[in-house]
Write a structure and sequence with these properties.
Elements: E1 6-8, E2 16-18, E3 26-33, E4 46-51, E5 54-59, E6 63-65, E7 68-69, E8 74-78, E9 84-90, E10 96-100, E11 107-111
Parallel strand pairs: 3-11
Antiparallel strand pairs: 1-2, 3-8, 4-5, 4-9, 6-7, 9-10
């Protein structure tokens, strides 16, 4: 359904899953790639999503805790009807890319081209 759910792993206890049943909203998934780089998923990149309602920031990371991890995809959630303006990517080496006319409800794949 696109909502983020939570799985909790406690040492010597069974895993627990908590399903997100909150009110409706919209989301955007972003997946970065740097073909030919040792850091193909752009771990450490900063994403800044600007909207009419405010600014959302995320960092691409792939680990989070004991015996668990995150996908390299980045999730943004926001209220229904939010108008998205732009997404700025600050790549791990400090270079930047800008995407305009961002639409909610999609997996936005951004591939860094050679020499950029």
């Amino acid at each position: 359904d696109g909502d983020l759910d939570i799985v909790v792993n406690n040492l010597q206890d069974p895993a627990q899953m908590f399903e997100n049943q909150l009110c409706e909203g919209e989301s955007l998934l972003v997946e970065l790639s740097q073909p030919g780089s040792a850091n193909t998923n752009a771990l450490g990149a900063n994403l800044i999503l600007r909207s009419e309602a405010g600014t959302y920031r995320r960092i691409v990371q792939a680990t989070s805790g004991y015996l668990s991890g995150n996908t390299a995809q980045v999730h943004f959630g926001f209220p229904d009807g939010t108008v998205l303006e732009s997404l700025q990517v600050i790549w791990p080496d400090g270079q930047t890319s800008q995407v305009r006319d961002v639409q909610a409800g999609q997996l936005l794949k951004i591939e860094r081209g050679p020499g950029s």
